[in-house]
Structure to design on (209 residues):
């Protein structure tokens, strides 16, 4: 009887300790659950863009900033030329031809294709210039002094519109190209003296029949 009471006492104490263990473990789980921070779901405040397709053009790595100066195309700087004021030709009437020549003889291009593009275009400009000069006077070519002034103005205008200043050296041209050189026909009067007008008109009339 005494041994049974001892067993019952031990059994009761073990059961009591077991209940305490269960209560303690449940309290510990609740405490851990309260201390563990909840990880918020990843929700972007802005809509996410898809990966852009691969482009053949390089992308600027800093889209939020302005482009660097070297990434912009560069164009020749234009300015008002300093003319002599002694050339009797209206350069405004030749503006289109001058712009084309300045473009073909631009600084980065002339050194590479000078003999192919720049110099032939410059030769055409000088011939057109002589035509404008002759149309406003009875002279077919320019006198030396006037040729120097006009040639200087032509080069100054071309340089002011982006052409290289070394055009005369690059294309081997000078003011003498605007003069008659050794040609004896320099004006309309001498041309009419040398030309047999009656024979020319007779030949023209035969061709027109």
């Amino acid at each position: 009887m005494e041994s049974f009471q001892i067993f019952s006492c031990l059994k009761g104490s073990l059961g009591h300790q077991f209940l305490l263990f269960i209560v303690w473990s449940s309290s510990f789980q609740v405490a851990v659950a309260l201390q563990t921070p909840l990880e918020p779901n990843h929700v972007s405040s802005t809509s996410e863009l898809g990966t852009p397709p691969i482009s053949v053009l390089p992308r600027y790595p800093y889209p939020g900033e302005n482009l660097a100066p070297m990434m912009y195309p560069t164009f020749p700087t234009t300015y008002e030329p300093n003319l002599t004021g002694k050339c009797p030709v209206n350069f405004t009437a030749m503006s289109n031809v001058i712009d084309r020549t300045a473009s073909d003889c631009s600084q980065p291009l002339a050194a590479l294709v000078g003999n192919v593009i720049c110099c032939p275009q410059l030769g055409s400009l000088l011939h057109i210039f002589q035509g404008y000069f002759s149309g406003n006077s009875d002279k077919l070519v320019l006198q030396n002094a006037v040729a120097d002034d006009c040639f200087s103005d032509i080069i100054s205008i071309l340089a002011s519109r982006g052409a290289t200043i070394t055009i005369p050296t690059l294309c081997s041209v000078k003011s003498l190209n605007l003069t008659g050189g050794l040609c004896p026909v320099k004006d309309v009067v001498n041309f009419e003296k040398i030309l047999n007008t009656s024979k020319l008109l007779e030949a023209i009339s035969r061709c027109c029949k």
In short: Residues 1-11, 30-34 have pLDDT under 50 and may be disordered. Residues 2-35 form the longest helix (34 residues). The chain is about 55% helix and 0% strand.
